């Protein structure tokens, strides 16, 4: 056999072993989700698969209440954040002023503030304004938490559009609004789409504020799943089924956006 | 009618001047080329005419009307960008028709205009393609087509050929010349390539450091450069310059010394110089001929046989001159060479770098 | 800071002589972030100098440095700081080392590379509470967990991870979550490596190890620095994983700074004390943030 192929086969075995080990916990969760509760506590691969757990989770109305909370909060905060971020990023990318760079870095710095440092006042503000345990409250917090990343991502996508294209648009008679709708948005749609996906992922998986500022009413799935941690909630198979349903959509979103994710999470410092 | 006039036009960025009071008149249907080294301000000047850069001083008149504060699309101009700046998400037809669409031209009329432009540019078969699916030369033509459909008073070109390979550049150059005749429009063209300037222009503006060095017809600039900068910038190989001093100056001409002890008499007006003044002798390569009695004596240092001609770099007592010799010349490196200057082939520049007028001029 | 952005009056921005005002575009974002940053921050600072306990409404007034004094005299703070540093440090070391190796490995050409890459980065998208429950129940459970099963099958003693070595268990779990992040970013960085440079090094006779040592690693230094800084900011505030698995215990064995403040604020209702802890956390994060922002700012000018 030729040595190149041997090398490639060896690499394949090695890389897939690594991939298998990394993915094992997720895979194990998937497998457990199809076991009966009895099988679930014996770590064996021999079992007869069942959809029973999904049916049970499905029948528990509260699962869908929490799932709905997750959806509303993730989409609500993403739309709100985009509505705030796109105009700001547009202005900063195409009409940069003396302070543009400072504003960008300052926005970034708000992201560095540890959440726990302002937990107490946020809790008190939310309690006193009636936002505690409401979807609106979590939408606001998730918007604010994600806004800097979203501004940065939109900014970097706008920045990638060659200035000459907009100048050509100006020569062709496009006013700023027309430039935005005919040129910028069509050209950056993939970028803005992946920005939105990233914002949804971040909001969906956000745990700190969701756990501390919500309870029975507005709790998203992160908080709901956490409630299984108490020993009396030990129904592993159902827990796995619920977890699978909570994780699956986001896993798919994440896979779709991995490249843009790097850009967003490193603020463009790694492309 | 489409004329463009610049009156003491200036450009400053945060107090730093990059264009210093340019006065220029571009005539109707003229092909005007702005040429100069990079950073000379030629592109800035074009962008100021286009309306993409603000004019910080002086006036811009298009067809006699002051246009300083008119927005770019209302100046009646169209521009072809160096990077083509095609809209990547639109088809060729949509790219060309975008301006008309914004101007709310009815669709039928729009399509007719796009089709007409596509015909001129031989783009009919590509109208439904996206720019990504086109070659460099085709993209270039789409960019030109986008300008044509608007039927502008003036076409602006910002180094339009610099992203093409050498063969395509020659081809597009010829097409541009044809287009100018066909469209019968005023064109302003920026390039750093002096061959493009020489071949395309009705008149050339040579710019340097934000100032106009000289304006004139290509051959006028080539044969009678006003100063050392213009003389050195136009022409390939570059004009030979020999630093020397005046030995005598009278009504029959100016005699200057040469490296190696010879001297030569140049038919230039003696008015501005006297014996002992530093001057520069400029001679183009094609004005040097091999002549045993020649005044420039030295050895061939480098020889380039190009087939049709031979470029011989000759070391004459420390300064290097290049001579363009006939292709059949079998000169080799190390050969002793004596060169003479053809009549009228030399220009003298005074200490300030200004060309001295020839006798009888 | 002012949000007014005077523009270089480009003619493009001009519609009949008036410049486009960017203020209305930028102001909303700036305003909400400004409020978001300043109000809670000021309140935290204020509370940290107050006597304020939600369980005891009669305990009020200026406390001076009392909250800080109490905080610093509390051994729980020091163990929380130690736990925080151990957690951050070990996770950083393991994610950077593994991330670098994985990145190089997954940059190679092998069968099914695209799918394998997706498998490797998957843990990053699993929500923290779910991954905590997977590790706690399905994997590390001393009786029914997969690890216990493997140990028993091999005749080895079973480890009760979250009881006997709780901090290690959390480190392993958090590292599993963050290795994909390091891998993803370093893989992207490797892919941006100049292939010509690699070819040139090969022509110069560089073997794989030398290539890794002299070309790849130096190229990765900056991305690694960024990975370290971003991970540090997130790892300093690890919370859900601890809440779900150990609730900070046994005792305070897995209580980090974030969890300590959470306990003080929402379980003990000591607003003053929790705020003092918050201020400490902010200072800690700012030290890291300073370097991170400087690195990114340099990138912005480039």
CATH class of chain C: Mainly Alpha
State the end-to-end distance of chain C. 24 Å
The biggest chain-chain interface is:
A-C, 103 and 117 residues
Q: What's the helix count of chain C? A: 13
Q: What is the level-2 CATH architecture name of the largest domain in chain A?
A: Orthogonal Bundle
The major sheet of chain C is characterized as: none
Question: How many discrete structural domains of chain C?
Answer: 1
Oligomer: heterotrimer
**Percent helix range of chain A:** over 70%
Structural class of chain C: mainly alpha
Shape annotation of chain A: globular
Number of helices of chain A: 13
Share of residues in helices of chain C = 55-70%
Radius of gyration of chain A: 23 Å
Task: Please specify the SSE layout and strand pairing.
The complex is a heterotrimer of chains A (271), B (361) and C (302).
Chain A: H1 3-33, H2 37-40, H3 52-59, H4 61-94, H5 100-112, H6 119-129, H7 135-159, H8 163-171, H9 176-205, H10 208-213, H11 221-226, H12 236-256, H13 258-265
Chain B: E1 4-13, E2 16-26, E3 31-35, H1 42-50, E4 57-62, E5 65-66, E6 77-80, H2 92-102, H3 107-120, H4 136-148, E7 154-158, H5 166-183, E8 186-191, H6 194-200, E9 203-208, E10 211-216, H7 218-223, H8 228-233, E11 240-250, E12 253-257, E13 263-266, E14 278-283, E15 288-290, E16 296-305, E17 309-316, E18 319-326, E19 336-341, E20 346-349
Chain C: H1 23-47, H2 66-73, H3 75-107, H4 113-121, H5 128-139, H6 146-153, H7 161-164, H8 166-191, H9 195-203, H10 208-236, H11 240-245, H12 257-267, H13 271-301
Structure report:
Chain A is mostly helical and 271 residues long. Chain A has 13 helices and no strands. Chain A has helices spanning 3-33, 37-40, 52-59, 61-94, 100-112, 119-129, 135-159, 163-171, 176-205, 208-213, 221-226, 236-256, 258-265. Chain A is globular and about 70 Å long. With 361 residues, chain B is of the alpha+beta class. Chain B folds into two domains: 4-232, Rossmann fold, CATH 3.40.50; 237-349, Nucleic acid-binding proteins (OB fold (Dihydrolipoamide Acetyltransferase, E2P), Beta Barrel), CATH 2.40.50. Chain B has helices spanning 42-50, 92-102, 107-120, 136-148, 166-183, 194-200, 218-223, 228-233; strands at 4-13, 16-26, 31-35, 57-62, 65-66, 77-80, 154-158, 186-191, 203-208, 211-216, 240-250, 253-257, 263-266, 278-283, 288-290, 296-305, 309-316, 319-326, 336-341, 346-349. In chain B, the strands form four sheets. In chain B, strands 6-7-8-3-9-10 form a six-stranded mixed β-sheet, sandwiched between helices. In chain B, helix 5 links the parallel strand 7 and strand 8. In chain B, helix 2 runs parallel beside helix 4 (136-148) and helix 3 (107-120) packs across helix 4 (136-148). Chain B is elongated and about 75 Å long. Chain B starts with a strand and ends in a 12-residue tail after the last strand. By secondary structure, chain C is mostly helical. Chain C has a single domain (66-301), classed as MetI-like (MetI-like fold, Orthogonal Bundle), CATH 1.10.3720.10. In chain C, 70% of the residues lie in helices and 0% in strands. Chain C has 13 helices and no strands. In chain C, helix 3 crosses helix 12. The two termini of chain C are 24 Å apart. The model of chain C is unreliable at 1-19 (pLDDT under 50). Chains A and C meet through helix 1, helix 4, helix 5, helix 6 and helix 7 of A and helix 1, helix 3, helix 4, helix 5 and helix 6 of C. Chain C: It is found in: Cell membrane. Chain C: Belongs to the binding-protein-dependent transport system permease family.
